């Protein structure tokens, strides 16, 4: 994927929409959600991970898009589409990919703040 982990233009657009002072508050919530997703996705057993992956992918489509997390949004959209088509199997490699990208994205935003 050639998209950025952190799309500054989208963050600037969000700041213009909601006010620059509100961005850190919402970003803190977004980072907290990513931390929670990482913990729960890491600790569950495979079948539970798959169910959880489907849930967070659906939620991440919009939140990642809002915060300019383009790669995370694209992955979440792809996984959500596969989940709806029942194309995610027991040995779902997307779990590891999602965990890695959640960590990379969280780290990028933590450095940005």
**Category from helices, strands and their pairing:** mainly alpha
- Please state the CA-atom Rg, rounded to the nearest Å: 14 Å
Largest sheet: none
Number of helices: 5
How would you describe the oligomerization state of the chains in this entry?
Answer: single chain
Order of helices and strands: HHHHH
Tally of separate domains: 1
| Low-confidence residue ranges | none
Termini distance?
A: 24 Å
The proportion of residues in beta strands is under 5%
Mean of all residue-level pLDDT scores? 90
Count of DSSP strands: 0
Broad shape: elongated
**Helix content bin:** over 70%
Structure description:
It is a single chain. This protein has 5 helices and no strands. It is mainly α. The relative contact order is 0.19.
Describe the structure in brief.
The chain has 113 residues and is mainly α.
List the helices and strands and how they pair.
Elements: H1 8-18, H2 23-43, H3 46-66, H4 70-84, H5 94-112
Helix pairs in contact: 2-3, 2-5, 3-4, 4-5
Question: What key phrases describe this protein's structure?
Answer:
single chain; 113 residues; mainly alpha; 5 helices
